[in-house]
Design brief:
The chain is an all-alpha fold. The chain has two domains: 52 residues, Homeodomain-like (Arc Repressor Mutant, subunit A, Orthogonal Bundle); 143 residues, Orthogonal Bundle (Tetracycline Repressor, domain 2). α4 packs parallel to α7 and α6 crosses α7. The mean pLDDT is 91. One of its GO terms (molecular function) is DNA-binding transcription factor activity. InterPro entries: DNA-bd_HTH_TetR-type_CS, Homeodomain-like_sf, HTH-type_TetR-like_transc_reg, HTH_TetR. Keywords: DNA-binding, Transcription, Transcription regulation.
């Protein structure tokens, strides 16, 4: 099986798990049901995932992969604050039905995670992995302007801004666009965090 086909199979399983979690909750869903819903054998399910909760990790990681790719496209030496805000806004926007559906699916998973410690652990793990993968991207963009600890602080702040924004939005009935949408909330979080970090203040802002 090719790597592309493996990734496609993982996504099919992830979509099946997310759909079942949304309709009947993680507690009432079994790995067997997820495999059957995805049209794969149970052994195939366990080839890729350790648990039923772990099955949704590709979906939760998709947004992080998308916004990290946007950052990777920026030129070294670019304004970090601007690059981060632009990538966050573009990755959390909902310009079409597919993007809107992805955000709503994330909302459903975060709501389910509130009552399922194992699913919540998957969410935190995905965010931790995203932060770690973001470190070299930030380092490249900083182009020698930041020390190692500062690079890690920026990666942590950016990751937490998105996580907190999505968790906050998931607790509401706000839509996928507008002032209370994930993109707007994430930028607000990022700016508040940036207010205490000189490395993320816009050029010319002394913080006074």
């Amino acid at each position: 099986m090719t790597e592309r086909r493996k990734a496609a199979t993982q996504l099919e399983i992830a979509h099946a798990a997310a759909e079942l979690f949304a309709t009947q909750g993680p507690h009432a869903t079994t790995a067997e049901e997820i495999a059957r819903h995805a049209g794969v054998a149970l052994r195939t399910f366990y080839r890729y995932f350790r648990s039923k909760q772990d099955a949704v990790s590709p979906l939760l990681a998709d947004g992080a992969d998308r916004w990290r790719a946007l950052l990777e496209a920026a030129e070294p030496g670019t304004d970090l604050s601007l690059a981060l805000e632009t990538a966050v806004e573009q990755s959390l926007a909902a310009p079409d039905e597919e993007a809107a559906a992805a955000l709503l699916r994330t909302r459903g998973l975060l709501r389910a995670a509130a009552d399922d410690p194992a699913l919540r652990a998957v969410w935190y793990r995905v965010n931790q992995e995203s932060e770690e993968r973001l470190v070299p991207v930030v380092a490249r963009l900083a182009d020698g302007r930041l020390q190692a600890m500062q690079v890690r602080l920026v990666a942590a702040a950016a990751t937490d801004a998105i996580r907190i924004a999505l968790e906050t939005w998931a607790d509401t009935e706000a839509g996928v666009a507008g002032e209370a949408a994930p993109a707007a909330l994430a930028i607000d979080c990022l700016r508040q965090l940036a207010g205490g970090m000189s490395v993320l203040r816009p050029s010319g802002d002394s913080g006074s």
